[in-house]
Please model this.
Amino acid sequence: MRSWQRFLVGGLALAAVAVAGIALNFTLLGLTRDDNEPVGRLSPRAVFTDRPVTTTPPSPVATTTTTTTTTTGDDDGSAPGSGDGDSDD
Model:
């Protein structure tokens, strides 16, 4: 048998094994799938129940607020980068 024939036979055998594996995978998935299983077939709908929903309020969290003010010597109260207020640039 020539070398290219061995490669051809090996490639065909590998392809046959791959196809058989894929077919086996789909077969096993089909056997284990439940028709009423919602996974993969979800639709946007709301489900309402007759019983009231109770929630617990969140536990209080201690907060600390710190304010720092930095001023410069030429602070005139205008917004930063607004210049000196003159319109004759």
User: Anything to note?
Assistant: Residues 58 and 85 are 49 Å apart (CA to CA).
